[in-house]
């Protein structure tokens, strides 16, 4: 039975009234005007240049893993910018609202944001950065690169891949919509129970948070199934387990974490939704429920999810560092083992979030030890990266600079994490900004790895390098901003400053808060340089065109195909002969294959069903937020109908004719030849056979026979 709510409700609009639109707030009104103008510009430009058909065919209905990955990254980039604006508002509020004599603006007693508004910003910032910025960026890069690294033409389930994208986008859109209709939750990004229960939070903010979170969780879970199936079942012939690139291994480990942890969060959120909508009492103390049940379920997801984010970042570093050290990765087998060791230990650490809840010393000791154990496989990775660089020809190009920054942030974040692993010390700074600074080191590690990966793989996806000068300015101002913001935050954390403060009572903290504001100014300048970096790169793209091997010293299979990558990825499915297949081919003069004749290639057909499922899912979530029951039933019926209709569709594949494949391949080779020096990276043309040595069958996949045996190469 649905819970009866106090306040106005109508059958047509539910709880939605004009009073729920915050047009009297100048900040939100200005944001709405900016977004509206930007939206109008995009719509007018798309119409003016007649691009609606192109956008529909090539993007909105695509099931191409590369384009889906690009759209994931765009969603993550937009939400990263939104999360940064939230962070900027938090830091400026705290720098102004220090001491009883601090001024007040825009209706606030101190600073320019009311406590209610600050609570919303804190909550939105945390949720956005973890779930709608970092996760889509990482999933997007995995979508693009993993099929290329294993020699596949697409994901195992292209339709499911598109559905995961649009569900995630629907969740992000719901968060953005809460800016202009109603409000967002204001009790912390992970949902304090019982504060998020209906009696304490009767507004729609928690409902926005709940359904946006749930949509994202569902989308990520579908994506994890897809990536695992792709890695397990779609590896090219000859790609044994111990020949897979480290980024693919890291993606497999991360998605195993996702597949087993995100459903736990779905259950936690579903039980909270039942409490709010159906009047159950799963988390209500005194009514048969247990408020700690939510905290346990949430952090059983929450801490493994940290490693779901970090492991792909480690994988990116493991691809960049060997390329720009011009060496093979040191300790391949130990890197694989370390990735799965981190994933395994991640399940035994969640209770360190509750060190102050007066658990028995034996319980705290177990989770202290398990938390510290994570440092062992992480340390193995750090030493392997250092040994990879040792005596290598290290080139300090932008991807390598980002990887080195990520390595430094890992050391800082790891050491401060070990400090938090002790229950005794955690009592001192629990819920303080020292912990905030620690996990921002880890999140910024992820950001640095993502920026490095974008610089590294961008020419493979788009066919031209990003410009270097503005990119280096962006890098150095990010370094300055990180130091100026988080070193003072560590100091304030040790001094006892707690988090989520809208007013700072101690004036002696003001200098540190002002230094942090200077750091935020550096970040703002960095954002400007990032925009310039993209603009100049797009403007000068023709002179920055590259061949297949954009960096000259890459090692893995994705660099074998053309830049940009054709829709079918590989004209022939490659046969893998060694761990670093691309480096092996260059060494043996097999850098480019000119086959005798091409064959028709079967690829998945585009479909608009995932897009409409995402739209209707967002409509369902919006209707549930405002309790517009007729709209909720309509959207649910449309979702079920679309799924049933899709199940009857057998025309889900298309064929790229051999003539078209030949045309694309010839055009790509001609373009590389015109580029001059880039063509030297490809080697001499050879026939589609290669010298494949007999294998020992061991874990390392090393050759044991001196005499080669001829075998077919790529078919």
Could you characterize the architecture of this molecule?
A two-stranded parallel sheet has the order 1-4. Helix content is 61%, strand content 4%. It is globular, with a radius of gyration of 26 Å. It is built from 20 helices and six strands. With 715 residues, the chain is mainly alpha-helical.
Structural class: mainly alpha
The strand order across the widest sheet is 1-4
Distance between the termini: 60 Å
Q: Would you report the number of β strands?
A: 6
Instruction: Characterize the main sheet.
Output: 2 strands, parallel
Based on the structure, what is the oligomeric state of the protein chains? single chain
Q: Nearest-angstrom radius of gyration? A: 26 Å
Strand content: under 5%
Helix content: 55-70%
Low-confidence stretches: 676-712
Name the average pLDDT.
89
What overall form do the CA principal axes indicate?
globular
Tally of helical runs: 20
Could you give the order of the helices and strands?
HHHHHHHHHHHHHHHHHEEHHEHEEE
Record the SSE blueprint.
Layout: H1 26-48, H2 52-60, H3 65-96, H4 115-149, H5 158-177, H6 205-233, H7 246-278, H8 291-325, H9 332-345, H10 361-373, H11 375-389, H12 398-420, H13 423-429, H14 433-462, H15 469-495, H16 510-539, H17 581-587, E1 592-593, E2 601-604, H18 609-626, H19 629-647, E3 653-656, H20 658-674, E4 685-686, E5 689-695, E6 703-712
Helix pairs in contact: 3-4, 3-5, 3-16, 4-5, 4-6, 4-14, 5-6, 5-18, 6-7, 6-18, 7-8, 7-9, 8-11, 8-12, 8-14, 9-11, 12-14, 12-15, 14-15, 15-16, 18-19
């Amino acid at each position: 039975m649905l819970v009866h709510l106090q306040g106005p409700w109508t059958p047509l609009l539910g709880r939605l009234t004009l009073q729920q639109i915050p047009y009297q707030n100048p900040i939100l009104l200005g944001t709405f005007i900016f977004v509206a103008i930007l939206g109008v510009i995009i719509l007018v430009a798309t119409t003016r240049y007649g691009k609606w058909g192109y956008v529909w065919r090539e993007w909105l209905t695509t099931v191409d893993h590369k384009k889906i990955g690009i759209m994931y990254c765009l969603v993550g980039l937009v939400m990263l910018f939104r999360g940064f604006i939230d962070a900027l508002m938090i830091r400026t509020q705290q720098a102004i609202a220090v001491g009883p004599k601090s001024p007040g603006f825009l209706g606030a007693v101190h600073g320019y944001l009311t406590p209610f508004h600050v609570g919303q910003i804190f909550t939105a910032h945390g949720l956005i950065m973890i779930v709608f910025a970092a996760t889509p960026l990482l999933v997007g890069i995995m979508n693009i690169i993993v099929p290329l690294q294993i020699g596949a033409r697409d994901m195992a389930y292209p339709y499911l891949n598109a559905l995961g994208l649009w569900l995630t986008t629907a969740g992000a859109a719901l968060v953005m919509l809460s800016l202009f209709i109603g409000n967002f939750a204001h009790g912390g990004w992970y949902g304090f129970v019982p504060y998020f229960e209906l009696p304490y939070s009767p507004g729609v903010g928690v409902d926005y948070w709940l359904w946006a979170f749930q949509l994202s969780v569902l989308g990520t879970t579908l994506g994890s199934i897809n990536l695992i199936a792709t890695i397990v079942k779609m590896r090219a012939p000859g790609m044994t387990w111990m020949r897979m690139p480290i980024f693919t291994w890291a993606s497999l480990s991360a998605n195993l974490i996702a597949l087993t942890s995100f459903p736990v969060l779905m259950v936690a959120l579903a039980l909270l939704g039942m409490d709010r909508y159906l009047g159950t009492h799963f988390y209500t103390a005194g009514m048969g429920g247990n408020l700690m049940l939510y905290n346990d379920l949430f952090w059983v997801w929450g801490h493994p999810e940290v490693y779901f984010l970090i492991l792909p970042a480690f994988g990116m570093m493991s691809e960049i560092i060997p390329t720009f050290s011009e060496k093979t990765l040191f300790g391949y087998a130990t890197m694989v083992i370390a990735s799965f060791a981190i994933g395994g230990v991640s399940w035994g650490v969640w209770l360190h979030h509750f060190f102050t809840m007066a658990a028995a010393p034996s319980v705290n000791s177990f989770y202290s030890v398990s938390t510290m154990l994570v440092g062992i496989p992480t340390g193995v990775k750090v030493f392997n990266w250092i040994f990879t660089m040792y005596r290598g020809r290290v080139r300090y190009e932008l991807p390598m600079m980002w990887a080195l920054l990520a390595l430094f942030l890992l050391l800082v974040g790891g050491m401060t994490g070990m400090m938090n692993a002790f229950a005794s010390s955690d009592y001192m700074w629990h819920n303080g900004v020292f912990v905030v600074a620690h996990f921002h080191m880890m999140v910024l590690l992820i950001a640095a790895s993502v920026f490095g990966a974008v610089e590294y793989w961008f020419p493979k996806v788009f066919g031209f390098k990003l410009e270097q000068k503005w990119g280096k300015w962006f890098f150095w101002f990010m370094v300055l901003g990180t130091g100026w913001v988080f070193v003072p935050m560590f100091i304030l954390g040790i001094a006892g400053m707690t988090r989520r403060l809208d007013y700072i009572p101690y004036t002696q903290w003001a200098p540190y808060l002002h230094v942090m504001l200077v750091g935020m100014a550096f970040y703002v300048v960095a954002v400007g340089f990032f925009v310039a970096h993209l603009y100049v790169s797009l403007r000068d793209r023709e002179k920055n065109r590259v061949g297949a091997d954009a960096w000259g010293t890459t090692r893995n299979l994705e660099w074998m195909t053309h830049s940009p990558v054709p829709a079918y990825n590989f004209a022939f499915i490659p046969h893998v002969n060694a761990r670093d297949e691309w480096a092996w081919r260059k060494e043996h003069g097999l850098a480019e294959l000119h086959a005798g004749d091409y064959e028709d290639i079967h690829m998945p057909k585009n479909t608009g069903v995932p897009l409409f499922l995402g739209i209707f899912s967002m409509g369902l979530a919006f209707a549930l937020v405002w309790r517009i029951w007729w709209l909720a039933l309509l959207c649910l019926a449309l979702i079920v109908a679309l799924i049933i209709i899709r199940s009857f569709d057998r025309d889900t594949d298309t064929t790229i004719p051999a003539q078209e494949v030949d045309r694309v391949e010839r055009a790509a080779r001609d373009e590389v030849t015109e580029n001059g020096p880039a063509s030297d990276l490809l080697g001499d043309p050879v026939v589609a056979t290669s010298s494949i040595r007999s294998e020992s069958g061991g874990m390392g996949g090393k050759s044991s026979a001196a005499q080669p045996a001829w075998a077919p190469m790529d078919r």
